[in-house]
Amino acid sequence: MTDTTDATDEQTRDDVAAARRDFLKGVGAAAAVGATGLGSAQDLTEMNALEVVDDPIGDYPYRDWEDLYREEWDWDDTARSTHSVNCTGSCSWQVYTRNGQVWREEQAGDYPRFDESLPDPNPRGCQKGACFTDYVNADHRVTHPLRRTGERGEGKWERVSWDEALTEIAEEVVDAVEDEEYDAISGFTPIPAMSPVSFASGSRLINLLGGVSHSFYDWYSDLPPGQPITWGTQTENAESADWYNADYIIAWGSNINVTRIPDAKYFLEAGYDGAKRVGIFTDYSQTAIHCDEWIGPDPGSDTALALGMARTIVDEGLYDEGHLKEQTDMPLLVREDTGKFLRASEVAGLSVDADRPEKVFVMQDADGGLRAAPGSLGGRDGQHDASASIALDFDPELAAERTVDTDDGSVETRSVWLNLRDELSAYTPERVHELTGVGEFTHRKIAREFADADRAKIIHGKGVNDWYHNDLGNRAIQLLVTLTGNLGRQGTGLDHYVGQEKIWTYNGWQTLSFPTGSVRGVPTTLWTYYHAGIMENTDPDTAARIRESVEKGWMPLYPSERDDGSRPDPRVMFVWRGNYFNQAKGNVAVEEELWPKLDLVVDVNFRMDSTALNSDIVLPTASHYEKHDLSETDMHTYVHPFTPAVEPLGEAKTDWEIFRALAEKIQEVAEARDAGPVDDRKFDRRIDLQSVHDDYVRDWETGEADALAEDRAAAEFILENSEETNPSDTTERIEFDDIDEQPRRLLAAGDHWTSDIEDGEAYTPWKDYVQDKQPWPTFTGRQQYYIDHDWFLELGEELPTHKESPVLQEKSEYPLSYNTPHSRWSIHSTWRDDTKMLRLQRGEPTVYLNPDDAEERGIEDGDTVRVYNDLDSVEVQAKIYPSGEPGTARHFFSWERFQYPDRNNFNSLVPMYMKPTQLVQYPEDSGEHLHFFPNYWGPTGVNSDVRVEVEPVEGGAESVAGGAVDGGERSDGDADETARGPLDRVTDLLGGGDR
Does an H or E element contain 30, and which? Predict the structure, then answer.
């Protein structure tokens, strides 16, 4: 191994790193001595031999030890920072330093109040953020560039210099671009809002190289696909302070007290203020105990429950008729012969003031006349057109049914409302009870109360999204707020929170991340599905629809198909701010099929997580307390910063420094090779590697060279170029120094939001459409519950409907439903390995079992068990969980692979399965309603349609790949089955091949 790092600088960094670690070890020793009064601590406490004390109150000589506790509250300096984790928290923290070391952190309590009638927003934080100090100086902290010397995942590394590491990466990148395989270079990093500068650092370079930026929101199944389907918007939520304005709240699959800790106070205090709180969870969760009523539907039956509630609201006339007529597609006429909307272009003599009458829809007025529906896509300028209106100057008929003379002759038509009523008629109280297990009286009672409330709200969680039919579940639950008109007012709406999914300062972040404006975005689910070999091993119908979607350009897939029909494999993958390898659904195929295709995997990380362990080069990045950045979330309307409390440990650099340095090295290598520009096969641009660093640090808005050399300047760029922090209609603006002093409430909302930020009011979405009558960004210009795309019609999903999950495992063989919820003790895999957090739980991967299920299998609390199905198995500890429903194995999410004895993890039992309806473009010719856009519309990764069995085990677990799935002996006749590879198992599971 060679190391060209300057010895003096390296020794200084090593001394600092050692001093930081020794400092904390000394603190730990001193605290231990002070707490126990034992040990050799004369140098720390200046105490002499212990003496017997007869009167400890009146005469106690041992006072010096108290200084240990006093010193905990003594510091040299403070810095404002936060934590770059995808939790929606976005909590401002004060970081205290002493002698150049991080001493402790504390929740900041200076969020400005904007409405004195709402609970104080201060403080924000949780127990995880309170121990981030542990990570700053952790043993698994990456402090130098590392290069793999053994097999991926083997854990064999050599330390290399920054120059060596960057040169090796740059050579591979230049090779790929010169081979015109720039679209074989991938960049994966999640959720920009949690640290947009760090997100942009790698995305900016990937964009300049012509590489591929991966989606994440859909990949994690965080995206609720029902929202873009119905509302034409990725996700829109009220900030959590608005919960307090509601009279009635349903927490539906959102375990607020566990996954929304900084915001749970608004839910709790709303109850104290008189709001009724209902929890809908399969288990008696930590949030259910704080609800007035708890409903426990069977897993995967949320759609049927919501449709049963909707039927009650409709049958009993509890719906908001005015809202349905103006704001929804319910009055629109549908052809009985084709199932398609009746278009104005089909009706002779119908007056239409629109350039595209074939995209204008038809209503019947109260007098029986046919009218063009205002706000239809054909009558406005694209998906978003604030100049158009859906305001009505006539009274449309909801229950319309008539014959219409068209160019094709007479056709029978019925309104969406009548079609919906037909669909809802199937959800009788008896059938809902049969499908969900919820009482016939109970679900109707809750529906009535929800409809009767003045301001009702649903807080929607990820649990519904994890199912194959998640789009149907979303649409059905959304229907409840639509029927009752609970949208566009304070205290109403459906608020879906999963991660910091939506960034406020969108324009500045987007411009910084993708300076060329030409972006190769790819749905990560599809990319993984294809390159992990799963696509050719799924059921024939799904495979055919995937191919059709790709061929028609509805969903992009990279590397793109070449002129000769071939498609190269991906070559280079960069991962930063995320843990792709650990979190991947279908990870058996990912590890054994996708990963070997990659020539180089680079992980930019401050800790050795599972992705780092399975990478080729690991570059040490600054921790959250060692850099400049911004933090935002849609759960509040503030922006606040990261600022460096200390210098990065060892040789670590900030993300921005790392990717800037790599850009510089790529430019250097390209100049040495005299690499010429490469024409981009998709965009009207040339990829010039000899200017890539100059382009990286240049402000493309002003043309100023070297303006973005530092991460602080990048943060200022975002603030300066975003409507939320630099509004176009005022001279007021928010700068970095302002938020370093105190979190600041955003000044405005950009055009990717659906309401304004108003003084004295919590942000609530949809006002642009409900109050200002702008068209919803859908095909019809309304909340659209009827989708007349051919695939939806063929699959019988034009309206929300309950469908049983696909059968991946037979219940007779695998009787337990497998669930992987989020935990209180980590944010995804961050803090999963933290000692303090492990001490608050079992300290190792654990499966939660209902007592009846455990007893039936001879399992006691604390036993080691094997959880398995026909894909793989994992060894974990069993915990008896009386609050869980019988028939479910609950294995909490995001344990690192290295925390399992067999190096599998919670996802090893989960295949990848894509739903075809999430691959469409709609309208098919233009996609102005549904079109691929990263994290807005694309196939979601789902993981809850899985079944398992659990058994007690003695000794270590045996992976399916090398032994029997059921842990028992195999006969000779099973020998071939034992040796079968992952794609064979996936084929069986997903219905491909011969069965």
Answer: helix 7-36
